[in-house]
Amino acid sequence: MTEDEKVGQRITRARKEAGLTQQQLATMLGVSRPAVAQWEKGKTSPSAENLRNVATATGKQLIYFFTGSGVKTDDFDEAPKMRGQVPLISWVQAGAWTEPFCPAGDDLEYYPAPPTCGPRAFGLRVRGESMIEVYPPGTLIFVDPDVDPVSGDDVVVQCEQHGGAEATFKRYIIEPGVGPMLKVLNKDWREQYMDFTEDCRIIGVVMAQMTLRRQ
Question: How many CA atoms lie within 13 A of 74 on its CB side?
C-alpha cells in the first residue's frame, strides 16, 4: 500500500467518525466532492493546507494522517471532536424562532456541530457588512438558543422596531447605569449602537464561526 493510499484511508476513517459525507467535507474545505473521493482512494494527495483543514474539520490531529495515531504531550491536547449536525436556516426562520420551532426538511444544508454548541443549535450565513470587522459576508455562524447572553457576546436578535420579521446580528453590550445595547462591529457604520428595547428578543448566542471559500 502506498503512502497516499494510507493517508486516504485515514481521511475516510476520520470523515466517517466525524459523521460527515464526502460532500459535506468538500463544502467545508472549499473543494469538490470528486477531489475528496480521489484523496480517499489514494489517487491524489491533498495539499498541506487541505490536509490541515481536514484535520480541523474532523477533530483529528494532523499527525494522525501520517502515522494513524494521535499524539499527546504536556503542551498539546487532542482537539475536541465535532458531534452531530447543525441545520443552516434563513434569517427569516431565525426571526420566527420560538421554543417549539425545530427546522427540518430535505432541502436544508447541515454542518458538523462545534463542540461548544448544544443540541438545538443552528447555522446562519452572514449577510451585509455591519459586523465585517469580525464576520465578513458569507461567514457561517453557529448559534445556540439555549445559552444565556452576557455582555460582549455576539447575538442573533429580533427587534420589531429595527426591521420586522427577520433576525439581525449584533454585539450585546451592558453598560452600568445605561442598560443593554446592541453594537455593530463595522467602524465605518453610521450608527454604532442600537437601543435594546422591550420589543427586542435575543434568539441565540453565537458560539463559533466558519469562513467558507468563495467560489
Answer: 0
Task: Return the pLDDT at 98.
Answer: 59
Domains of the chain and any CATH numbers: 3-67 (1.10.260.40), 85-210 (2.10.109.10)
Q: Per residue in 29-62, pLDDT tens?
A: 989 999 999 999 988 888 888 888 898 888 888 8
Query: Which residue numbers in the chain have pLDDT < 50?
Result: 71-77, 100
pLDDT score at 11: 92
For residue 3, count CB atoms less than 10 angstroms from its CB and return exposed for 0-12, middle for 13-18, buried for 19 or more. Answer: exposed
pTM: 0.59
Residue type, position 12, single letter: T
Contacts of 6 (CB under 8 A, 6+ apart): 42, 68
Quickly tell me which residue has 465535532 as its cell: 82
Give CA–CA dist 97/156, Å, rounded.
11
DSSP 79: P
Query: Would you give the DSSP letter of residue 147?
Result: S
User: Residues 20-49, buried b or exposed e (16+ Cβ, 10 A)?
Assistant: bebebbbbbbebeeebbbbbbebeeebeee
163 close to 130: Cβ distance less than 8 angstroms: no
129 torsion bin: left (phi>0), alpha (psi -120 to 50), beta (else)? alpha
SS (H, E, C) 115-139: CCCCCCCEEEECCCCCCCCCCCCCC
